[in-house]
Write a structure and sequence with these properties.
Helix content is 28%, strand content 32%. The protein has five helices and 23 strands. The strands form six sheets. Strands 3, 4, 6, 7 and 8 form a five-stranded antiparallel sheet that branches. A four-stranded antiparallel sheet has the order 9-10-14-13, with no helix packed on it. A hairpin with a 2-residue loop joins β17 and β18. α1 runs antiparallel to α2, α2 runs antiparallel to α3 and α4 crosses α5. The radius of gyration is 54 Å and the shape is elongated.
Length: 492
């Protein structure tokens, strides 16, 4: 490379780069110089005075780094410009929305005649009317409804009425306002509030601990059973009455069970209007009361019909052994739902070790490897799974047994051995008695000679003693003969 080329390169490297454009221009000039040197191109051809360059000089790495910096700076400038544009657009939209002339061009008025009416047990009708001063031309009007109590809820509707199902023993309150949509903008009015006061009644007189359960019967009907406790402040003469509502049907209980003070604490409906295959429908329970001494406060509670269903027991449960496996099969409970809608609990007890296990199963059969030297007890129960909300677990099925404990056979052998031993002992005792009797017969005792010379005039004591001794000797001899004879007959 000529001296002129190096001078041009040094001048480019030590130049002042005030802007990315100038930096990029300098990079291009340096690149041209090194390409000229590498390819033996005459600089004069490119508009640069000088002689042809013959040197083979590689392009330095710092030139590539400079190029990347230029590229990065360009992109950063572009991104900064885009961010500035987005911020300007966002601020413009906010300013436009804040300065929409609602008060001048469009004014949003709240609804009028907002009322709450109890239309059925635990059912409230919310009704209102559009504000007559509200301009409706070229506008979309909806209503924002907010339930404040007993449970918070908010929704919007285009209608001028709405129904709500809620327990009303603690009152009910709601708010409503107008929503106006125009050119993609939403404008709202002020809130309007209405309220229902709680029903009258003395404190602590309402029922407590209310619980209910439904049951699907073999007649494809649904029964209902509810229990509760009287309020702590309820007088002894309180008479509670229960009503249930399902959809539009309301019915009063006729079958009560009473406590020791003759107060109703339990109710049964053998048949109801509840539709068994419905999902997530609500059952309303209402209990009020009367007394001579106090005003009884009513009580309401909502139940999901699937959540309080007491599922029936699985049917046709069978268990048997297949080699070293326990195999159990069963059918789904009596229910309008398909078999895929149930889950089961399989309860197994090892009666030899006392070990208990429970498995959750989602089919109608179960196979398990077991110890065939043990005896097991099996029970199964069911509940809802996929199709609807889980209810109450069914009762356990009847206990079934499978297998046989080897320990029981061992005990049986022990008992048999004890019986044989006792029998052998009795026989041995009989033999011993028999041998003793034969010995006495073979070797009788030598009799004592009698005194032939007796006192012709014995005193009373000697006479009594002689008679008693002879009598005892005869009785003892007779008893021994009789005992040995009886034993001899028993043994032989």
């Amino acid at each position: 490379m000529t001296q002129r080329t190096f001078e041009q390169t040094e001048q480019a490297l030590h130049g002042t780069f005030e802007t990315p454009q100038k930096l990029e221009s300098t990079f291009e000039q340096l690149a041209i110089l090194y390409i000229v040197a590498a390819k033996n191109i005459d600089i004069s051809v490119l508009g640069v005075k000088g002689t042809p360059l013959k040197a083979n000089i590689p392009v330095p790495d710092f030139l590539l780094s400079v190029k990347r910096c230029v590229f990065l700076l360009d992109h950063l400038n572009i991104m900064a410009s885009m961010v500035r544009v987005c911020l300007i657009l966002l601020l413009t939209m906010i300013v436009v929305q804040l300065h929409v002339p609602q008060g001048k061009a469009v004014q949003v008025f709240p609804p009028v005649n907002f009322t709450l009416t109890v239309s059925a047990l635990a059912r409230v009708l919310l009704r209102w009317k559009p504000n007559p001063n509200q301009e409706q031309k070229n506008y979309t009007i909806r209503y924002d409804v907010k339930i404040l109590a007993p449970v918070s809820e908010e929704y919007d509707t285009k209608k001028t009425h709405s129904f709500q199902t809620a327990a009303l023993h603690n009152g009910f309150s709601a708010q409503i306002r107008t929503l106006l949509f125009h050119n993609g903008l939403q404008m709202t009015s002020d809130w309007v509030t209405a309220e229902l006061q709680p029903p009258p009644g003395a404190a602590n007189t309402a029922v407590t601990n209310l619980s209910c359960a439904t049951h699907f019967t073999i007649f494809s009907t649904v029964s209902l059973h509810c229990t509760w406790l009287p309020g702590k402040g309820a007088p002894e003469d309180t008479k509670y009455l229960l009503f249930y509502r399902y959809e539009t049907c309301t019915e009063e209980c006729q079958d009560y069970i009473k406590d020791k003070w003759n107060r109703n604490t339990e109710c049964r409906f053998s048949v109801t209007h509840i539709i068994p295959d419905e999902i997530d429908k609500l059952i309303v329970i209402h209990i009020n009361g009367s007394s001579k001494y106090a005003a009884i406060r009513p009580f309401q509670q909502l139940f999901n019909q699937n959540a309080i269903e007491k599922v029936n027991v699985p049917r046709n449960v069978t268990v048997f052994l297949e080699q070293n496996d326990l195999l159990a099969t069963w059918e789904k409970p009596i229910s309008p739902f398909s078999k895929e809608c149930f889950e089961y609990e399989f309860y197994l007890i090892n009666l030899k070790t006392g070990n208990e296990q429970i498995w959750n199963i989602y089919s109608n059969e179960f196979r398990l490897r077991i110890d065939v030297t043990c005896k097991y007890s099996i029970q199964i129960r069911a509940n809802h799974h996929i199709c609807c909300r889980r209810g109450f677990w069914s009762d356990w099925s009847e206990i079934l047994y499978v297998g046989e404990n080897k320990q029981e056979n061992f005990i049986a052998w022990i008992l048999a051995g004890l019986c044989v031993s006792m029998c052998a002992t009795i026989v041995l005792v009989g033999i011993i008695c028999k041998m003793k009797f034969v010995w006495r017969k073979l070797f009788p005792p030598i009799p004592t000679p009698s005194n032939k010379f007796r006192d012709p005039f014995p005193n009373e004591y000697e006479r009594a003693r002689t008679c008693t001794s002879e009598t005892e000797t005869e009785l003892v001899s007779f008893d021994e003969d009789l005992s040995c004879s009886a034993l001899d007959d028993f043994v032989f």
